[in-house]
Amino acid sequence: MDGWIGLRSGTTLGAAKVVSESASVCSSDINHWMENVWPDIIRNYDEKDIFNADETGLFYKLTPNQTLKLKREKCVGGKLSKVRITILVCANMNGSEKQKLTVIGKS
């Protein structure tokens, strides 16, 4: 057998993925901002002095969104846990300074 591909073709196992929502952004707006606005903002700063911070949710009780199943079986999802912690990630533009991850809160 040739790894996962061989295993899948030789058995009745298949992968199932649970799909969620995704956000959309207009690429022309991004291009305009990056070409015309961003250069004016950063002109007077060094890369080491420009930081970006963002928060992300860690759903530590969330069940996996993929599973193995028999091809003839139906895959049904359950109620997804919404328990999470919010983490702040921050680094400067050239990557020379990365802040420690900061837990903002639990919800």
Descriptive account of the structure:
GO terms for molecular function: DNA binding. InterPro entries: CenT-Element_Derived. It comes from Araneus ventricosus (Orbweaver spider). It is a single chain. The chain has two helices and five strands; from the N terminus they run H-E-H-E-E-E-E. The chain is α+β, with helices and mostly antiparallel strands. The protein has a domain of 59 residues. Strands 2-4-5 form a three-stranded antiparallel β-sheet, with no helix packed on it. Strands 1-3 form a two-stranded antiparallel ribbon. The radius of gyration is 22 Å and the shape is elongated. The mean pLDDT is 79.
Strands, total number: 5
Instruction: Name the average pLDDT.
Output: 79
Largest sheet strand order: 2-4-5
Q: Count the DSSP helices.
A: 2
Radius of gyration: 22 Å
The helix content, as a percent range, equals: 10-25%
Largest sheet: 3 strands, antiparallel
Q: What overall geometry do the principal axes of the alpha carbons give?
A: elongated
